[in-house]
């Protein structure tokens, strides 16, 4: 039987001859040029997957849909039962009454879409995968915008169908045959999206779900109540009227109203709505890109 022949390296180590012992250097890695790089649309798909994985997304979307449709049906039934003269425009505007709660609910969803990663600490993983913060912020913005746009469109369609069901005056194809009805639905859709961007910016700025939702509620509802009280107490003082015309809910109402009942030009109301959303969105972007996690 032949004796086991030792490996040359083992013989060298046993004899103390380290000069002939093989050495292992650090492993080197080289990027594969055939692999695709980090793309904007790839990051957007990733952010959409995160949003769809949140149960909060489905809860807030379902509540917005159910509440808006319920109010739409109630308003349409009230018009058909207690009003002698109704028009398609009146019914369409009434159908959108419940969507004002959607401003807050879907705006809160936008807040949570940003703050949830800061709460759980998952933002560190996101920034590791996507170290370019501006790219990540824009991808998150695009993802929440697409989601809110789809949900809001579904809510508007549901509200319209419910209103048409409870009232014979509103035709199912009215958004396509009546330009005023189509305008009301389109501007409400845009308003919800802009409000969601405001909420998203507040989430990035404050990094707190509770704080962002509270501030958003103040912008949408509380400021309106305070300004209305000031306007009444001062008996319509000029400065109080200026405040009333500058608050967010009033601008949204002006933007979604048709020409016959609008107090300001369309571009003025739209510019005001954008300004309200642009300030927190821009500050949130600045904070996200420069502040440590």
TrEMBL record:
| Residue ranges of the region described as Disordered | 1-31
What domain of life does the native source organism fall in? Bacteria
What are the transmembrane regions? Answer: 58-79, 99-123, 144-166, 186-206, 213-234, 266-288
Q: Which UniProt keywords apply?
A: Membrane, Transmembrane, Transmembrane helix
Under PANTHER family, the record lists: INTEGRAL MEMBRANE PROTEIN-RELATED, MEMBRANE PROTEIN
Specify the protein name: ABC transporter permease
This protein's species is Nesterenkonia massiliensis
